[in-house]
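May I ask you for just one protein sequence along with its backbone structure tokens in two labelled lines?

_____
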Amino acid sequence: MKVPFHQFNPKKFSFRKDPVLVLDNFWTEREMEIFREAMTHSTWTGLRDMPAVSKAFPDSGNWLKAEIGPRERQLFLDKMSLPCIMEYV
């Protein structure tokens, strides 16, 4: 299923009936602003500065990672807590 998020009904969708779900426009402009703002205040660590991870993923480029703040973490978890995911898992 491919559908804009605002038209998606998570209570009716089932991964058992349709194993692929693509939600267009999942994040609102405001939510993206919140994450982008938080990213400017994060401490970023490069893959090359994490030897164990770099060794485990040798061909994955040099990406960066940062901890997610409590506000952003809750926003992320609330948005990802779809009933269809919980039922499938």
